[in-house]
Amino acid sequence: MNELRRIYPFLENIIKMLTLSLDVEVAIIDKECKLVISSEKYRYYKGREVHQFSVEEAFKEGRLIISKPGFMESCKGCRFQFKCPSSVELVQPIGQKNDPAGIISVTSFQIIKECEKEDALEKYEKALGYASNLVDFALKTLSGKSSLSFSDSLALPVTIAGKSNSLLDLTEKIKKVSQTSSNVLITGETGTGKELFAKTIHTNGPRVEQAFIPINCAAIPDNLLESELFGYEPGAFTGALKTGKAGLFEQAHMGTLFLDEIGDMPITLQAKILRVLQDKKVRRIGGTGVFNADVRIISATNRNLEAMIEKKAFRLDLFYRIAVVPLHIPPLRERKEDIEVLARFFLDKFVKEMGLKKICFSKETLAVLNAHQWLGNARELENAVEYALNMCEKNTITPQALPDSIQKGKINKMTLPGQKIDPVIGTPFLPYKEAVLNFEKSLFTSTLEQTGSDLEGKKRAAQKLGLGLRTLYRKLEQHQALDV
């Protein structure tokens, strides 16, 4: 395995650090001249095809400054020659001079005035050198660990760590599925960390040396989603880039494509996705040729796809393709043991980021956090901790520093419909009908986790619950309707 790809999560942080602090785009490329990771805009403009000559030139020179992209000696042979979308680019090797691990590239797609270019280059050079040293240090600290196999260890992001039985069971499933290239469907409420689990599967899997490319199907208009996924040829439609554009399926070839919120994908596009998964080939919009697209699909949704299938809103054949291995992340309110673990993690993270001294939670604060329902799951908890850190006056976070919606006596503002808080013990109680519905939903969820959620699994669940299969489907649809 390439050594740069062993520190993939660390490289993600380097990318974020540079893009946010300098408003530049960043790419990290291995010594085989293959793109390891890059910022989203870099991929948008340049794709995954690396100009090998400039990389080799950087290996030879130690650092390459392309101040006139498209018109310099190092630009010869590049597909962007004379029409490069960038305004300036710096490339520097990572690691030892005689045996570099790869290169890191900082690119600006902003218009830089000639009088400001020198200052910009100086700023980029300093940041590039700092980032290169950080990556080099991370590679050195990796020594002695390369013999571990996927089954020996699992590089779980600490933000999804916990000690609840449901999370530990999920971790074991992830260890197994990470060793294959099977398609995975991750279900769970918003804020449960579905993308973190997807990245974990990719990072610990056989495709780790290739790209992990995420796309939120709900965040892109329907008419643009197809061009993002499949790409297009020059002049395919009004506003298309003159150079054309590689789609995400092409960019993710031999890697992983993460389709977040796949339940929001238009039904017309689902048939085209199915064809790509069957043929492992993709055709750009307006094109006649085909490109290889051997891609592992990890999908995620907070919607009930099976209920959508019954309403003809989601294709059954696509569901079977993407849900070879279904994984469900329980909401935070159903794994109370993880609340304190996550709260302490988020607190430590923000304390370090803000350069503060050690700060802790009071016992009363932890009790309030544990009593809250966390309808926004880990994301809501993270926001609450950051808010409290800004509001606390001393080295201890008290309940008064928490957001109003979470403080005792005000929790019902963010709880489930009809739910109230017992003023004495501070824990939630529900009216009879809501309590029965909640219990029924939890019973169905836990049973389906044991039996599986496919047709055979539902038959076993119905038998176990003493219900007819049609009754089970009707109940599941009822709960789905209540969640909408």
Tally of individual domains: 4
Percent of sequence in beta strands: 5-15%
Mean pLDDT: 82
What's the CATH architecture name of the largest domain? 3-Layer(aba) Sandwich
Name the assembly state.
Answer: single chain
Shape designation: globular
Count of discrete alpha- or pi-helical segments spanning 4 or more residues = 17
Instruction: Catalogue the unreliable spans.
Output: 143-153, 409-428
Instruction: Kindly report the CATH topology of the largest domain.
Output: Rossmann fold
Helix content: 40-55%
Q: Main beta sheet: strand number and arrangement?
A: 5 strands, antiparallel
Characterize the structure shown.
With 484 residues, this protein is α/β, with parallel strands linked by helices. The chain folds into four domains: 4-140, Beta-Lactamase; 160-328, Rossmann fold, CATH 3.40.50; 338-426, Helicase, Ruva Protein, domain 3, CATH 1.10.8.60; 432-483. It contains 17 helices and 18 strands. The strands form six sheets. Strands 2-1-5-4-3 form a five-stranded antiparallel sheet, sandwiched between helices. It has a five-stranded parallel sheet with strand order 7-10-13-6-14. A hairpin with an 8-residue loop joins strand 11 and strand 12 (291-292).
